[in-house]
Amino acid sequence: MRSFAALTWALACCLPLAETKAVFAHFTVGNTKLFGLGDWQNEIQLAQSAGIDAFALNMAQGDTTNDVALPLAFSAAASLGFQLLFSFDYAGSGPWDKSVIISMINEYGAESTYGKRGQKPLVSTFEGPSNAGDWQEIKAATDCFFIPNWSSVGARLAVKLGGGVADGLFSWDAWPKGPANMTTYPDASCNGPRGILQLAGDDSTSTLNLEKKRKDKRLWQLASILILAGALVWVRC
Ligand SMILES: *[C@@H]1O[C@H](CO)[C@@H](O)[C@H](O)[C@H]1NC(C)=O
Ligand SMILES: *[C@@H]1O[C@H](CO)[C@@H](O)[C@H](O)[C@H]1NC(C)=O
């Protein structure tokens, strides 16, 4: 298994790519303690060769690896024309301090290397629904576009949390688990009218599927609308 692609997700309409959709790989920063610049560059090149556009950097709060990794990761990404964005992990070692999040987004979010939706830095989470209220202040201070993964509470509740603070919801169920066809079951809690953004998640095998799809733009565009419908993100569904 390629280490960078333990989890992948594809996102329609977020990064400024003209014809194709952007494909992100969920990347666990906690595993990079021993990484130097060359290791980051190597992971990024592997990702690029698989048609991946960005890493969503999963980070646990208080992990000192983050402080070492971010300057290296952004430097490597800048040298290779790659993008990065933050996914704050609230499940790994507890909730993030909102002031730390604000300073991190304000430090990196304006860089050209940081993944954006329009002008807004795109930010996600791994869980953290109990801290939804923090994001009113974080969004006000950073102007980020916020697509948390609050899967544990279900979409209908998640979209209302923190006074409806989420700009979209991230689901983890876009890809089949093994050799099976997708069903609409994972979408059931998201049965809203506004399927504007779509995300997809899977293990490394999807990387190959994604690569194949990118080779056929039409199929990929269709895929982004139909096949990836297993996981949906709404803008206020
Ligand atoms: C989303 O949250 C679920 C737990 O509810 C977790 O299993 C999944 O890995 C998360 N995905 C991402 C990309 O954070
Ligand atoms: C998936 O669906 C297709 C079309 O209905 C079918 O031919 C195929 O056998 C299914 N695959 C699995 C693993 O169920």
From TrEMBL:
Q: What CDD domains does the annotation carry?
A: GH71 (cd11577)
The record ties this protein, via InterPro entries, to: Glyco_hydro_71
- Any idea which UniProt keywords this protein has? Hydrolase, Signal
The source's superkingdom equals Eukaryota
Question: GO MF terms on file?
Answer: glucan endo-1,3-alpha-glucosidase activity
Q: Where is the signal peptide?
A: 1-20
**Keyword Glycoprotein attributed:** no
Q: What is this protein called?
A: Glycoside hydrolase family 71 protein
